[in-house]
Specification:
- With about 270 residues, this protein is an alpha/beta fold.
- The protein has a domain at about 55-160.
- It has helices at about 5, 10-15, 35-40, 65-70, 85-95, 95-110, 135-150, 170-175, 180-190, 215-220, 235-240, 255-260, and strands spanning about 20-25, 50-55, 75-80, 120-125, 160, 205, 215.
- The strands form two sheets. A five-stranded parallel sheet has the order 1-2-3-4-5. Strands 6-7 form a two-stranded antiparallel ribbon.
- Helix 3 (about 35-40) links the parallel strand 1 and strand 2.
- The radius of gyration is 19 Å and the shape is globular.
- The termini are close together.
Length: about 270
């Protein structure tokens, strides 16, 4: 869990580097005791603040205040909903998760989230369940919007599509199933150079719970860097490190962001 000392550096970093977005993720970042304070200390900096929300947290007894708090502070919500079918979601996330997610989405809709005129943005995230590439984002978004509105009366702004990265637990699972090599080949064989202009490592830094920075979430998980050691937020402020022109660490897993229709995953602050 990120220490308060590290959290206190975030507003300074945002101002020093004139960053436009603070993207907060977890697990469930709302469970951190410093979550509300971080938002209140940064919302006056004229930036966009994003909460990567797992939806079910909004129904927990100690967090039922969250929807109104997020709406009052105009926090953008990006929420995972890997399918509009109950069976698929519960298979991937656990029994009952789909119905809880739907209930949470209805609460957010009542507050104005997902409605264009409200200015409260609600994006959903899709990722495949296994060793396949996600479909086109625009086509799947149309299906999601139609099905969720028809079945549950739910509205949202955009659907983000994420490719599963062959690292950590997913790589281990694929290896056990004998699919790791073929999945990596699938990513390489579907390399699409037109995705290069929108990959997140071009304009995002990912910060881990100890305050060290990486080029993206996936490099963070792998502790993969181009320098002898990762920079910390404290070192950024002290040394005034310049990011322009700095090499980006790349490896085999990077084909996950360039395969097929691309992966619209954004960077984050852990």
């Amino acid at each position: 869990m990120m220490a308060n000392e590290t959290i206190s550096l975030i507003p300074e970093i945002l101002k020093e580097y004139k960053l436009k977005t603070l993207d907060i993720t977890g697990g469930a970042p709302e469970m951190h005791p410093g979550f509300k304070e971080l938002i209140l200390n940064t919302k006056g900096l004229n930036i966009q603040i994003i909460d990567r929300c797992n939806l079910t947290i909004l129904l927990e007894p100690n967090y039922i205040y969250l929807p109104e708090f997020l709406a009052e502070n105009k926090i953008k919500i990006i929420a995972s909903l890997p399918c509009y079918e109950e069976g698929n979601v519960d298979h991937q996330r656990g029994r009952g998760v789909f119905q809880k997610s739907i209930e949470a989405l209805k609460i957010l809709n009542k507050l104005g989230y997902g409605l264009i005129e409200s200015g409260l943005e609600l994006d959903l995230v899709y990722n495949p369940q296994g060793d396949s590439l996600p479909p086109s984002q625009s086509g799947l978004q149309e299906i999601y919007k139609e099905e969720l509105l028809k079945r549950h009366g739910i509205r949202f702004n955009k659907l983000l599509v994420i490719t599963n990265m062959p690292i950590k637990r997913f790589a281990t699972q694929l290896d056990i199933e004998g699919k790791l090599i073929s999945y990596k080949s699938l990513l390489k064989d579907n390399y699409n150079s037109s995705n290069l202009d929108s990959i997140m490592c071009l304009e995002t830094i990912s910060v881990d719970w100890q305050g060290y920075i990486f080029d993206c979430d996936f490099n963070q998980q792998l502790r993969y860097i181009n320098t002898t050691k990762p920079y910390s937020l404290k070192e950024l402020l002290k040394e005034k490190v310049k990011f322009e022109g700095m090499p980006i660490a790349v490896a085999e897993h990077c084909f996950g962001c360039t395969a097929g229709s691309g992966s619209s995953c954004g960077g984050s602050l852990n």
